[in-house]
UniProtKB/TrEMBL annotation:
<dbReference type="GO" id="GO:0005524">
    <property type="term" value="F:ATP binding"/>
</dbReference>
<dbReference type="InterPro" id="IPR006203">
    <property type="entry name" value="GHMP_knse_ATP-bd_CS"/>
</dbReference>
<keyword id="KW-0808">Transferase</keyword>
<keyword id="KW-0547">Nucleotide-binding</keyword>
<dbReference type="InterPro" id="IPR019539">
    <property type="entry name" value="GalKase_N"/>
</dbReference>
<feature type="domain" description="Galactokinase N-terminal">
    <location>
        <begin position="25"/>
        <end position="73"/>
    </location>
</feature>
<dbReference type="GO" id="GO:0033858">
    <property type="term" value="F:N-acetylgalactosamine kinase activity"/>
</dbReference>
<dbReference type="Pfam" id="PF08544">
    <property type="entry name" value="GHMP_kinases_C"/>
</dbReference>
<dbReference type="GO" id="GO:0006012">
    <property type="term" value="P:galactose metabolic process"/>
</dbReference>
<dbReference type="Pfam" id="PF10509">
    <property type="entry name" value="GalKase_gal_bdg"/>
</dbReference>
<dbReference type="InterPro" id="IPR020568">
    <property type="entry name" value="Ribosomal_Su5_D2-typ_SF"/>
</dbReference>
<protein>
    <recommendedName>
        <fullName>N-acetylgalactosamine kinase</fullName>
        <ecNumber>2.7.1.157</ecNumber>
    </recommendedName>
</protein>
<comment type="similarity">
    <text>Belongs to the GHMP kinase family. GalK subfamily.</text>
</comment>
<dbReference type="InterPro" id="IPR006206">
    <property type="entry name" value="Mevalonate/galactokinase"/>
</dbReference>
<dbReference type="InterPro" id="IPR000705">
    <property type="entry name" value="Galactokinase"/>
</dbReference>
<dbReference type="InterPro" id="IPR014721">
    <property type="entry name" value="Ribsml_uS5_D2-typ_fold_subgr"/>
</dbReference>
<dbReference type="GO" id="GO:0005829">
    <property type="term" value="C:cytosol"/>
</dbReference>
Length: 458
């Protein structure tokens, strides 16, 4: 994988209607023209849900929907942010005093995460001010990573405005860390694919060290994204962070039972690595060591041989202090089985057997069942949408993104695509009880798009 930095493309704005329109809006807003434009794509995760923060590889692809920002570096040390969507309010702040409000995940706070991450990485004492106008085509809170795309785009913008360079891998790692300023304990998939994506290929993304491998998707099928229209903002909910903590606690209990240094172990992947066993063997260990009933904080303390005070101060994060029970068996079981499905998915894509589509579809179905039953990150609307997609010809379908709302991704035979879209539209979006706006990017076929880059007017 090239350790290059995101490319800067000279473009003729007349041939890019969206950029041209953004430029005109920028001029009417700020009274001067932008100097450059930065773009970061959203993503769809084909398989590998909720395992990146456990240290396991995931298999996403970038989509065509993106965040686009027009930028003019300015002499004053102020960042002025505006959005082409008038429901997102203007915001301005001094670049020397970045305050990120965790209690309100508003759009400008995600921009500030990317800005702060780059500033801190370079120790910029005198950062450049900027006027920025943002345009987004990723449906918000849909599990297609609109928030991470905004963090990545802001990081790229800040880098360029301050005349600095970084490789795509470094940028992805900085943006992963900096999104945590808003309180989300994410694992790095979204930021990595946003920078490392290449047109025409999905990517197997592995962590520690971060690397991306091309995964050629089989011909004869198209991936379709369908939005359940249930919004889920993972920073605004505790569900996501509770799952991260449950995985961490499962790591500690599994490590302790196997005589490992459990205090140092943070991720389920670490246990497998230290024991030197396969994912299948890890699933057997989960069955032996953990019980399906929820664990109380008292029982966790007893298993680890520590006091409640130590659990609260050393292991549980600040926002977990009031949670009294944790499901460890189910979460560990999902993570180890999902990690195995990702590797199997990649293997089928590279070997391309005659029945590849059926095999991949089966893995997607298993993934959804595990997300629904073991990780409990689905919701009735997502389950209904998956059922509808399978009923109308999808070979595989599953929730994608954090879950609890957002989108499904389905693999559909290309020759049945039009009929599939028509039927799903009718069955989910145009039923009597639920007339949802389908024209608003809620149902669309997609192919692997390219990663983040900068445009300059030619």
């Amino acid at each position: 994988m090239a350790r290059d930095s995101p490319s800067a493309l000279p473009v003729q704005l007349v041939e890019q209607p969206r950029l041209q329109k953004l430029k005109e809006m920028f001029i009417s807003k700020f009274g001067s023209a932008p100097k450059f434009y930065a773009r970061a794509p959203g993503r769809v995760n084909l398989i590998g849900e909720h395992i990146d923060y456990c240290g396991y590889a995931v298999l996403p692809m970038a989509i065509e929907q993106d965040i686009l920002i027009a930028v003019e570096p300015v002499q004053s040390q102020v960042v002025q942010l505006a959005n082409t969507n008038s429901s997102y309010l203007d915001f301005s702040t001094s670049v020397n005093n970045i305050q990120i409000n965790k209690t309100k995940p508003q759009w400008h706070n995600y921009f500030l995460c990317g800005l702060k991450g780059i500033q801190e990485h370079f120790g910029l004492n005198n950062p450049t001010g900027m006027n920025c106008l943002l345009d987004g085509t990723i449906p918000p809170s849909s599990g297609l990573s609109s928030s991470s795309a905004l963090v990545c785009c802001a990081g790229l913008v800040t880098l360029r405005a301050n005349g600095k360079t970084l490789s795509k891998v470094e940028l992805a790692e900085i943006c992963t860390k900096s999104e945590r300023y808003i309180g989300t304990e994410g694992g790095g998939m979204d930021q990595s694919i946003s920078f490392l994506a290449e047109e025409g290929t999905a990517k197997l993304i592995e962590f520690s060290p971060l690397r991306a491998t091309d995964v050629r998707l089989p011909s004869g099928a198209t991936f379709v994204i369908a939005n359940s229209c249930v919004e889920m903002n993972k920073a605004a909910t505790s569900h996501y962070n509770i799952r991260v903590m449950e995985c961490r606690l499962a790591t500690k209990l599994l490590s302790k039972s196997k005589g490992l240094e459990w205090r140092k172990m943070l991720r389920l992947h670490d246990v497998q690595t230290k024991l030197g066993v396969s994912l299948e063997e890890m699933l057997t260990i989960v069955e032996e060591v953990l019980h399906p009933e929820p664990y109380s904080t008292e029982e966790i303390c007893k298993c680890l041989g520590i006091s409640l005070e130590e659990l609260r101060s050393q292991i549980l994060s600040q926002n977990m202090q009031d949670v009294s029970t944790f499901k460890l068996y189910q979460r560990a079981k999902h993570v180890y089985s999902e990690a195995a499905r990702v590797l199997e998915f990649q293997k089928i894509c590279s070997e391309a057997p005659a029945n590849a589509l059926q095999l991949l579809g089966e893995l997607m179905k298993q993934s959804h069942i595990s997300c629904r039953e073991m990780y409990e990150c689905s919701c009735p609307e997502l389950d209904r949408l998956v059922d509808i997609c399978l009923q109308f010809g999808a070979i595989g379908s599953r929730l994608t993104g954090a879950g609890w709302g957002g989108c499904t991704v389905s693999m559909v035979p290309t020759d049945k695509l039009n009929t599939f879209l028509k039927n799903v539209k009718k069955a989910y979006y145009q039923t009597d009880g639920q007339r949802l706006a389908v024209e608003n990017n809620n149902l669309f076929a997609t192919k692997p798009g390219r990663g983040a880059l900068v445009f300059v007017e030619a």
